[in-house]
Amino acid sequence: MKNPRILPYLLIVGLLSAMVFSCASFPQEQLTLNLANEIPPVTLNEVAKPAHARNFTYEAGYKSQSMSAATRGGGTITMTMSGNQNMPLGTQMQTLFINNPEWAAITSLVFSVDLSNVLGVLSTTSYTLRTDAEVPFQK
Amino acid sequence: MKHTSIFAIALAFLALTFGSCMSLHQKLTFKAIPSDLPVSASSSILVGDKVVQLDEFESSVPFSLQKEIKIPLKTPDAVVDLYPDLKAAVDKSGGNAIAGLKISIKDFSSSDYYWAGFERYMGAYFAIIGGALAIEISAMSTGTYASGSDNFVLPCAIIGGAGAVLFGASFLHERLGNSVYTIGLEGQSVKISRPLQ
The domain containing residue B70 runs over which residues? Predict the structure, then answer.
């Protein structure tokens, strides 16, 4: 704390990370449940549990991690690592119909948001769409 | 005196660094749709235990709507009921079921979360820096090399105090704030003649 010149750098870091927060585009493609082109019915209604059923869980989402640091020469470096996790849900769920051509029921659909931020310098953002599907099978 | 002040500054810095950690963990659960409105995500519909195929629909009208949901930041789990919106869309077009429903999370935004975060770490920075300088200068002025530095104690203390107030205000902002979810629903409102269960 001997060097008060660090203050402008800290301000720059703060402002930049606020900009990074607000400008990040939303990963809409990953967070979509799109099965409109599938032929077997995928019901979203409450269904009576079939005698024999298999459960499948699918997850798709987006995660980003940013870290900002003030440099000695002046200015700020912000490193951001981001990426989509897994294929979109619709693509993943195609495998469901290869083995089970009859029908499927979506038993739960949950969207979760996890954000965290330490002094505006280190931040993580994560969005996940998770679904559980149930398919009947004959023994 | 010097060591005590450095120790106090280090302690305050640590406390504020941990205190400024902000996080949001929220879950949005979609409620299952009652069976009086058959809804399918694919191109055919399951009614009871019978399958109604695409070519058996009497009519099919596309619809698309957006739903905005506001949830307080302090609510970790929320339940979304799509039934009223879907029912309204179906009634409008004279159908009785939905096929090919596409559900997408179009946007998540929470200016309250970001502003509260901004207030918190800016408050923490000002409290740390202003407070540290005030302690440092007042410690210096009681030493042997005391000078006119006393004049700076008050401004530094004010900056530090303002930072601490901003830091505290961010907690209130977080408590009162909301996050907004935009959910997109797209599908076909269809009419099926088979009796509904």
Answer: 27-108+182-192
- Alpha-carbon distance of B135 to B133, in angstroms, equals 5
CB contact under 8 Å between A28 and B37, yes or no, is no
CB contact under 8 A, A120 and B106: no
- Do B120 and B156 lie in one domain? The reply is yes
CATH of the domain at B61: 3.30.110
Confidence of residue B149 (pLDDT cuts 50, 70, 90): low
Whether B91 maps to a domain, the answer reads yes
Nearest Cα residue in chain B from A111:
B28
Helix (H) or strand (E) holding B181: strand B178-191
Classify B78 as helix, strand or coil. Answer: strand
Q: Do B121 and A34 touch (CB under 8 A)?
A: no
Specify the number of domains making up chain B.
2
**What is the value of pTM for the model shown?**
0.79
**B115-144: average pLDDT:** 80
A 10 A CB-CB count for B2 gives 10
- ipTM for the complex? 0.81
